[in-house]
Amino acid sequence: MSTGLMHPGQHSIDDDLVRRLVAGQFPQWAGLAVEQFPSGGTINAMYRLGDDMVVRLPLLKGGAKDVSMEQEWLPRLAPRLPMPIPEVLGAGKPAEGYPWPWAVYRWLPGENPEAGALSEPVPLAEDLAGFVATMRSITLPEAPVAYRGGPVASLDASTRAAVEKLRAIPQEGVDCDAVVAVWEDALRAPGWDGPPVWLHADLMPGNLLVDGGRLTSVIDFGCTGVGDPACDLFPAWNLLPADAREVFREALGVDDATWSRGRGRTLSQAVTALPYYRKTNPAMANNARHVIRTVLTEG
Questions:
Q1: Taking Cα atoms as reference points, which of 25, 36, 82 lies closest to residue 200?
Q2: Domain tally, the chain
Q3: How far apart are CA 221 and CA 69, in angstroms?
């Protein structure tokens, strides 16, 4: 859960604003209990609405496009996937001083998995591979390009800048030279030369729901689209232990080049997140530390 403002220009959101927005645009739900849901997310605030719904509101202007993305693509993806994904029940408009589109979704039960505390890591790896493989098999016309879905080299400047920020934070104890070596290995790996495939493109632990250790839902499709299949290998390093990581790789049939790109992409996300969120979002910062340790240990 965030402990302060994560972003410059972040909009202030509270229970009262959510109640006013709901009452003004969805009077059938006025009077239902509204309660902020603690989340490690970075782009949206989430509020439970009654027992069966959740309100999701972008914190930043840049997050508003995710609302439109989900409204367009979630209904088309849902029947093609092996597990429930978010269902939009209401599309909210700017009002009450809140400047961006927002949405009401059906509540999906489950808990976010935590790296190092998985009760069924190997079956979870199989579940994740099944989800990723199914995403890759989807064919839908006019697919958007996934966020992070382009060449690894497109992340080079931002990744190197993030590494330099980490060098200036010695208390984090990150071996920045080792990080650069892994990153450069990813840059040298052959790029994806097949057709772009459908991706979730943000498979962080906070976007996964589990029950009894097994994957029950995947949420937050704001980054979805088509691109390099390496983009959906994030759980190999941000969640799964070594034995389950190998099960995940084998189930997806990942070649060495794609594995290297996936490892580099996951590391890039982590070294970018750590200096940015280390004081405002403990969940994101701690997972970034886990990724860096895992990748550098794996070698």
A1: 82
A2: 2
A3: 8
